[in-house]
Specification:
The chain is of the alpha/beta class and 365 residues long. Helices cover 39% and strands 17% of the residues. It contains twelve helices and twelve strands. Helix 7 runs parallel beside helix 9 and helix 10 packs across helix 11. The protein starts with a strand and ends in a 6-residue tail after the last helix.
Length: 365
């Protein structure tokens, strides 16, 4: 007797009677003697990816049991699509029905015709939402993270990788959380460009931390200028991975904490033209730790200009960062708890680096 395997199928369509087409596809799956449709998620409506002038899609996920091989199941899905009238006019074209083989047991398959797990399922909230209903604890065979965790990274959004954009990975978190250490380790593991904050070259910052508030605007403008230059869309190459130890969006966080009302008003006039020149990240790695632990790291590394930083200031920054990423829609966010992650452990760095590769497009992909 052939071994039975659990597989997950994504169903979707945006032409004709969308509900009927999904129902018909499920019926045709169930009629196959080698397939048992075990469970089906709720049907959700989503906007079309990459093109906004298409009708909205209906999507669902089905859990099946099958004695077919992954390759034969894939062919069966293609036959069902054809039987329901699908016409293939390109990757982003509208369609009557779309059946994707998302997972096949724990198998990892890469052939000219078939890639399993589906290479972009972790970027699709409409897929992960259905998965979470069926089996949220299921581990992705490549990313080694649960479906629930992958869904949390998207904040309900769907993403389509764009090879025409710089592949910027931004490491974010409050002072002392370990951003620069992690950035250096990731850059080394990925063999990619590294972009570090110019703390040591800012001539105003030591005085600002020492209490000279009149120099706060000078310090913020120095950072704004240098970061805009580093992250400029015309400076970063398309398809090239770069890892930065900061996220540009923190500029306003620090400006609002360090500048007085008059300084902030001027800064907020200067900020938008600079922000418009900056490449948006395709992935954020948000490092989280208690402000108290971060303050202890600050004292241990003993940078003179940081020694006046107070716990209250770090606690305020921590709240600001939490608000920033509470409903972040720009790109996926990998949240790292520093109580469970060790930058000195090669295994932790390798695990994270392997995940990063699934969220970016690089020259050899």
């Amino acid at each position: 007797m052939a071994k039975q395997e659990t597989a997950y199928i994504g169903l979707g369509g945006n032409l004709g009677d969308r509900h009927d087409h999904i129902r018909d596809a499920l019926n045709m799956l169930a009629e196959n003697k080698h397939i048992d449709v075990a469970r089906v998620s709720d049907v959700v409506e989503t906007a079309a990816l990459a093109q906004t002038n298409q009708p909205k899609y209906l999507n669902a996920v089905a859990e099946i049991k099958t004695t077919l091989s992954a390759e034969d199941l894939y062919k069966t899905l293609a036959d069902i699509e054809t039987g329901l009238g699908r016409v293939r006019n390109g990757k982003w074209s509208p369609r009557i029905i779309d059946l994707d083989l998302l997972l096949f047991g724990r198998e990892v398959i890469s052939t000219p015709d078939l890639t399993v797990p589906h290479p972009q399922m972790h970027l699709r909230s409409f897929v992960l939402k259905g998965f979470c209903q069926l089996n949220g604890d299921l581990l992705h065979p490549v990313l080694k993270e649960s479906v629930n965790e992958l869904a949390n990274r998207l904040s309900g959004s769907d993403f389509a990788p764009d090879p025409n954009l710089p592949q910027l990975v931004s490491v974010a978190g409050i002072i002392g959380v370990g951003k620069t250490t992690l950035t250096k380790k990731l850059s080394s593991s990925l063999g990619c460009r590294i972009l570090l904050e110019p703390y040591d070259t800012n001539p105003f910052m030591p005085d600002v931390y020492a209490g000279k508030k009149e120099l706060a605007l000078d310090s913020q403008l120095y950072f704004l200028t240098s970061r805009t230059r580093q992250l400029n869309n015309n400076t970063l190459a398309r398809r090239q991975i770069a890892v930065s130890d900061y996220i540009f969006d923190k500029e306003l966080i620090y400006a609002r904490r360090l500048l007085d009302a008059q300084q902030l008003a001027l800064y907020e006039e200067i900020y938008p033209p600079s922000a418009a020149k900056v490449a948006a990240p395709v992935l954020v790695i948000y490092m989280q730790d208690s402000p108290q632990e971060c303050l202890e790291r600050i004292h241990r590394r003993n940078r003179p200009y940081e020694q006046e930083i107070e716990l209250q200031f770090l606690e305020a920054l921590d709240c600001d960062y939490q608000r920033l990423f509470a409903d972040w829609k720009t790109c996926p966010v990998i949240r790292i708890s520093m109580s469970q992650f060790d930058c000195t452990q090669d295994a932790d760095i390798e695990h994270l680096a392997n995940q990063v590769k699934s969220y970016v497009i690089c020259n050899d992909s």
